[in-house]
């Protein structure tokens, strides 16, 4: 996708009633034209969130974040640097991420954190406390889902999605592929390099994918919700707020889920 391709798709998304765009990756802050796309999305009247590991953010991006009212989101794994760095497989990641979270708070840039539980011994409660003490108002969490690196070679399944994919959102990859959500990259709905987004959104393939995902979740959309670390809110089930409740019905009653989400007393 070229810069002009992304700008065209942003305009198409706004034209069909889209309200918010999230730049995610990979790591979006490494993309050299991110600030330009942020400005374009702002001009199209869209709300903007950047989901980043918050390790390296250069001054021009900080300026774009402030100028265009960008919101930030990041994953956080532990208050312990060694544990966090082990999960991210990047030495020094905890120090850089924590420093940039603090900088965002100091600059008044809205930021939310998601604590993803990858092991039963992980310091998830301490991670939540650490983020809140830094000044992060919205702290959510999730279990590890079998997609990408976390799949460990397992075949992805619609059963591990939230159940609302391709209903209120889609994801678009760097090659133009359209997916039902950022986790549903194993389901291709079309490609915006060859087909307008409106046509992909209303295509038989997208309609079939929605039906397949809904059927896998028992046609009970109120019992499923979007994983909070990927989207700003759990819109499909209004009462579900990432900072105070769990957004995964399969794990809602588990001790690990409670530890991941629960704010400290």
UniProtKB/TrEMBL annotation:
Pfam families in the cross-refs: Radical_SAM, SPASM
Regions crossing the membrane: none
Keyword presence, Iron-sulfur: yes
Domain Radical SAM core, chain residue ranges per copy: 1-111
Stretches assigned to the 4Fe4S-binding SPASM domain: 165-215
Keyword Protein biosynthesis: no
A molecular-function term among this protein's GO annotations: metal ion binding
Lineage: superkingdom: Bacteria
Keyword vocabulary terms for this entry: Iron, Iron-sulfur, Metal-binding, S-adenosyl-L-methionine
Name the record gives this protein: Radical SAM protein
Organism: Streptomyces albireticuli
